[in-house]
Structure formats: structure tokens, C-alpha cells
Amino acid sequence: VYTHSRAEKKVNERAMKAGFDTFLPLITTVKQWSDRKKKVEVPLINSYVFVHTRKENLNSLLNIPGVLNILKHLGKPAIVKDVEIANLKIVINVVEEVQFIDSIDLTKGEDVEVINGPFSGLLAKYIDVAGKHRVLVEVEALKSCIEVNMPLNNIRKI
Q1: Closest Cα partner for 23 from 31, 35, 15?
Q2: Torsion of CA 67, 25, 88, 1, to 10 degrees
């Protein structure tokens, strides 16, 4: 089912109370606020809760507060295969090997700081070339630049 934004946990809880067999893949991530960091569980896939049910019970899912719609494929209710659910369960069990990146709205030429990796502490300019994220390190005194490929989760806006 497709849910309201940030309503996945409540929808999952309500659907289970209504007798549905549900699966909500959650991962633990560290969220940072200005004054603290905290580990929180967030959905692996935003706005979706997987429900195992019969076709005749689908309409009763729409009565659950927070449910917006039944996910459809080619006009029919979408069927997620058991192997796909099993794959999601594997992913959430080894989540430390998977990197999740919070959305960063960076524009070409913007000043950034490297916060992870061997270049940690480096101040640079961000460029995006052909879909690859690169950081341009400018050495003004030498009037030259060095270009470094870097994952987005290693940089933040200044």
C-alpha cells in the first residue's frame, strides 16, 4: 500500500491490528540535529508498507487511516514476489554494508566540506560532471585545481 508521507509505521501498526500480514522494512540510521545525534528507525522505502492479503480484502485496506492507495501495476494491484520480500529482509539485516544518503541539494560551484574519508576536513567547491559527484579543490596561490571523485555522503554544505 502507498501511505501518507512519514505515516508508514502507524499504517503498519494499524494494518496489523486489523488482522493483515504486513512487512515494513526498517533500518537504523543516525540523524543529526543542530544539538545532538540520535539513532532512529526509518523505512527502507518511503511511503510503502507491504501487505500480504487476498484480492477481495484489498478495499478494506483503504479504510485504514494513513493509507492513500493500493499500489498498482498495469491497472491491477501490484504483486510483490516472495523472493523480493526475502531480498528486502536480507538487505535490512546487513544494512551496515549499504549506504543510505540523505538528500543533499548541491549546485555546481557551491562550497562544501569533506566530513568523511581520507580527505576529511578539506574545504572545496562542488561540481557534478556526467552524473559523477566530484569535488574541486582549488589552490588559489598556485592558480590550479585538483578534481576528486567523492561519494555524496562524504560531503556537506558549508
Answers
A1: 15
A2: 0
Question: In sequence order, which ranges of the chain are alpha helices (DSSP H)?
Answer: 8-17, 58-61, 82-93
At residue 11's C-alpha, the angle toward residues 36 and 47, to 5°, is 70
97: confidence class by pLDDT, cuts 50, 70, 90 = very low
Average pLDDT of the chain? 81
Cβ-proximal residues to 104 (8 Å cutoff; 6+ apart), any chain? 152, 155, 156, 157
What is the spatial distance between Cα 69 and Cα 58, in angstroms, rounded to a whole number? 10
Q: Full-prediction pTM beyond 0.85? A: no
Least confident of 12-16, 19-23, 146-150: 146-150
Round to whole Å and give the CA distance between 51 and 21: 6
* Closest-CA residue to 148 (of 125, 115, 130, 116): 125
**Quick check: 2 and 68 in contact, CB under 8 A?**
yes
Average pLDDT over residues 110-139: 71
User: Rounded to whole angstroms, what are the CA distances from 22 to 7, 55, 77, 80?
Assistant: 14, 15, 16, 12
Give the strand pairing for 111-114 and 123-129: antiparallel
| CA count, 13 A, side-chain hemisphere, 27 | 21
